[in-house]
Write a structure and sequence with these properties.
The complex is a heterodimer of chains A (429) and B (306). By secondary structure, chain A is an alpha/beta fold. Chain A folds into 2 domains: 2-54 and 370-384 and 408-428, Urease, subunit C, domain 1, CATH 2.30.40; 57-361, Metal-dependent hydrolases (TIM Barrel). Helices cover 30% and strands 24% of the residues of chain A. Chain A has 13 helices and 19 strands. In chain A, strands 1, 2, 3, 4, 5, 16, 17, 18 and 19 form a 9-stranded mixed sheet that branches. An 8-stranded parallel sheet of chain A has the order 6-7-8-9-10-13-14-15. Chain B folds into 2 domains: 16-135 and 289-303, Rossmann fold; 137-287, 3-Layer(aba) Sandwich (Rossmann fold), CATH 3.40.50. Chain B has helices at residues 16-32, 58-69, 83-86, 90-99, 114-121, 137-151, 169-180, 209-215, 230-233, 237-244, 248-254, 274-278, 284-303; strands at residues 47-52, 73-78, 104-109, 125-131, 158-162, 184-188, 204-206, 218-221, 259-261. In chain B, the strands form 2 sheets. Chain B has a 5-stranded parallel sheet with strand order 7-6-5-8-9. In chain B, strands 2-1-3-4 form a 4-stranded parallel sheet, with helices on both faces. Chain B is globular and about 55 Å long. Classes of the chains: A alpha/beta (429), B alpha/beta (306). Chain A binds chain B through residues 193-195, 197-204, 270-271, 312, 315-320, and chain B through 12, 82-84, 89-91, 109-114, 116-117, 131-135, 166, 169, 172, 195-198, 200-201.
Chain lengths: 429, 306
């Protein structure tokens, strides 16, 4: 099948593209950019995409699919549908499933399940067996099976000696280690520690719990020459630590979630458990530091930390409710509304952080917008004003604090693996 | 006389007039408690559930007695296990109870915010009987009542809360209520027991208990709660008593006019010496009696709102 994306604004930061053109895609491959003849129009399905942005397919490197184990909350399929609806053609899925992703069989299981989908799924494997931080997982085997990174996800690798071995061992295949940075001995709480935790009577987690581990990990990266990626950075001081580490040339990268650059711990005053996450929502000062970090490149990418939870689990007493929110389908809207429209980032920078940098961190090829290349694209309407309706989202779970929020900017189509997702439908192309 | 809110979730933001109304109403009920027949028909036909998700003896008994004195029908639902362990969700439990047509719910829970959450899933009047380390408004009210009873006023008084302020639900209710009534509130205790950012509420923090005794009119002495891991925040009970315990020697040396409150149960020889616990400076048992009157006032005012 042939399709034409008419008059799209092609933006590709790596290829330095920023122009309006027609795109002809045949059998999932970009056949022509511009110079279309009448014959092309007659034989193709034409999509009028004037004033829409065509970027390389977006990539979310921090997604929790709940399969295997909690298929009632999300499956590989529903998670991929959610990603497609949110504008992503690739995701990295985290290993805190049940069982954990700590064997090649589970990697193969996930890859097989995702094989037919528009969205490419890249598993992140556990760094240690059962994510316990005690013995190395079969890292080489996991890498060979398709793991793109290692992480004890949800747990910090507490023992520095074990972390050293993970970092050194994975240096052979250049795979990054993704760290959830939290010193457990300080993290006996359910929200950010500060005046708000005092006023709400909820036990707090000080930012230092994050900073300590970020500082240690930077030193470990220096010692081993390994690559460390800081997951969901949230504290101002941690951003500064990463900034300094980058200046020293260390292989440290970092991601931030939309909720950490949008919301503060003031939101918890309603005790709504949809504001309960880990790391917790911090203060205005931290939110500003996240934005500053995105602007100056200290923070490499934006990732959702999409964490589906069932209604009955999330609708619990605050201290018992699980951490986390879904985020795949609100991510672009929040990023455009909070970052681009507020003039913190250009749309170029945003696409770098949503499509280019995550793939670079994970050593994945960057999709090119070039004749002869596979079409791996996201079409964004940056001006579309829409209201979030969680009940209409594709994710199997509904735990989001952004329901009913007015956002600007939305993905209207994605194309990958000879498929297109447009107007709520998957089409083979 | 009526209150501005149909629930009592905490003393945060409760206007002065409401607190005054509750305290005045409590005076009336305090009188009732001195009569030979201590019962009034005020809440006849009203059904009240005491929903206690955490062990509590005195608060629950106090509420129950207050309800009986007002002729309400009372049901006790107590469980110390969380909804998680029990299998039924908290929401389902509440809906089941509400389906039995209850008018008011008195709730105690280990998690802060549960009373607020209840207002969203139930139509009943909600009274917070203690949520986590957040608030315990009827305790705050009975403390204020007891102080006023002895000192004749609240405005301009200096009150220091001594002990594990950070892990106490009594402290915040005292702070909010007393500040609204024009008293000056301070805290004193080992720094591991003082909440983060408390100074930003305009609260003085004494590091020495002697100074706190000397400069205040009232001490509200909190219980060292070993069941809430207080042991992790101090080296030993002996050391706590040595540096922060309220003893006759300290009182006699620094301030003989001081009034001592304690929410109970007392750890004798820890936060209070036995001499103080039984001595002339304290009003601990009056607090217990006043507690019934104050809870009657709250139940009455909320239960008769239209």
């Amino acid at each position: 099948m042939k399709i034409i994306l008419r008059q799209v604004t092609i933006i590709h930061p790596e290829q330095k593209l920023n122009n309006k053109n027609d795109l002809l895609i045949e059998n999932g491959v970009i056949k022509k950019i511009g110079n279309l003849i009448e014959e092309d129009h007659k034989t193709s399905e034409v999509f009028e995409f004037e004033n829409k942005i065509c970027s390389p397919g977006l990539f979310d490197m921090h997604v929790h699919l709940r399969e295997p184990g909690r298929e009632d909350e999300e499956t590989i399929e529903t998670g991929c549908n959610s990603a497609a609806n949110g504008g992503f053609t690739g995701i990295a899925c985290m290993p805190n499933t049940n069982p954990d992703i700590d064997s090649a069989e589970i990697i193969r299981f996930i890859k097989e399940k995702a094989e037919e989908h528009l969205v490419n799924v890249y598993p992140v494997a556990a760094a240690t067996l059962n994510r316990k931080g005690e013995a190395l997982a079969p890292l080489y085997e996991l890498f060979e099976a398709g793991a793109v990174a290692f992480s004890d996800d949800g747990n910090t690798i507490k023992n520095a000696g074990i972390l050293r071995n993970v970092l050194e061992y994975s240096r052979n295949f250049q795979t990054p280690v993704i760290e959830h940075c939290e010193d457990e001995s300080l993290a006996d709480g359910v929200m950010n520690e500060g005046i708000n935790s005092t006023l709400l009577g909820l036990p707090g987690i000080p930012k230092v719990a994050e900073d300590l581990v970020v500082a240690r990990d930077i030193m470990m990266a220096e010692l081993t020459g390994g690559k460390i990626h800081i997951a969901h950075i949230s504290s101002k001081e941690s951003v500064e630590l990463v900034r300094q580490a980058k200046k020293r040339g260390l292989k440290i990268t970092a991601e931030v979630t939309p909720h950490h650059f949008t919301l503060t711990d003031d939101m918890l005053k309603t005790y709504d458990t949809n504001y309960k996450m880990n790391p917790p929502l911090r203060t205005r000062e931290d939110v500003d530091a996240m934005i500053e970090g995105l602007k100056d490149g200290t923070i490499d990418c934006i990732a959702s930390d999409h964490a589906p939870h069932s209604i009955e689990e999330k609708e619990m007493e605050f201290i018992y409710a699980p951490n986390g929110i879904i985020g795949l389908e609100t991510q672009i809207g929040l990023a455009i509304s909070e970052l681009v429209n507020k003039k913190h980032l250009t749309i170029f920078q945003l696409i770098e952080k949503l499509a280019i940098n995550p793939r670079k961190i994970l050593n994945l090829p960057i999709p090119l917008i070039k004749e002869g290349e596979k079409a791996n694209l996201t079409i964004i309407n940056p001006d579309l004003i829409w209201t979030v309706d969680i009940s209409k989202q594709k994710s199997k779970s509904k735990n989001s604090p952004f329901d009913k929020r007015l956002l600007t900017g939305k993905s209207i189509a994605v194309i990958n693996n000879k498929k297109m997702f447009f107007e709520d439908k998957f089409i083979s192309i | 006389m009526s209150l501005s809110n149909k629930h009592l979730l905490g003393l945060y933001g409760v206007p002065k007039e409401d607190i005054q109304t509750i305290l005045d109403t409590a005076t009336t009920f305090r009188e009732v408690l001195e009569r030979p027949i201590k019962k009034v028909p005020t809440l006849q036909g009203k059904t009240i559930v005491n929903l206690f998700y955490e062990d509590s003896t005195r608060t629950r008994i106090s509420f129950e007695l207050a309800q009986k004195r007002l002729s309400a029908d009372t049901i006790n639902f107590s469980t110390s296990t969380s909804s998680v362990k029990k299998g039924e969700t908290f929401k389902d439990t509440v809906r089941n109870i509400e389906a039995m047509k209850v008018d008011m719910i008195v709730v105690r829970h280990k998690s802060a915010g549960v009373p607020t959450y209840l207002t969203k899933i139930s139509k009943a009047n909600i009274i917070n009987a203690g949520d986590g380390i957040h608030e315990h408004p009827t305790q705050g009210l009975l403390d204020m009542y007891s102080i006023k009873e002895r000192k004749g006023k609240l405005e301009g008084l200096k009150i220091c809360i001594v002990g594990d302020v950070a892990h106490s639900r009594v402290a915040l209710s005292n702070i909010y209520g007393l500040k609204t009534m024009g008293a000056k509130v301070s805290v004193c205790g080992p720094a591991t027991m003082i909440p983060v950012g408390i100074e930003s509420l305009g609260i003085k923090n004494y590091s020495k208990v002697e100074k706190a005794i000397e400069e205040n009119d009232v001490l509200n002495v909190l219980r060292i709660q070993l069941e809430r891991d207080a042991g992790k925040r101090i080296p030993s009970l002996r050391e706590y008593h040595k540096y922060f315990g309220i003893t006759s020697e300290r009182i006699e040396k620094y301030n003989k006019e001081i009034l001592i409150l304690h929410p109970g149960p007392i750890n004798r020889g820890v936060e209070l010496s036995s001499e103080v616990a039984d001595g002339p400076y304290q009003v601990i048992l009056d607090q217990v009696t006043n507690g019934v009157a104050v809870r009657m006032a709250v139940l009455y005012l909320l239960g008769t709102m239209h």
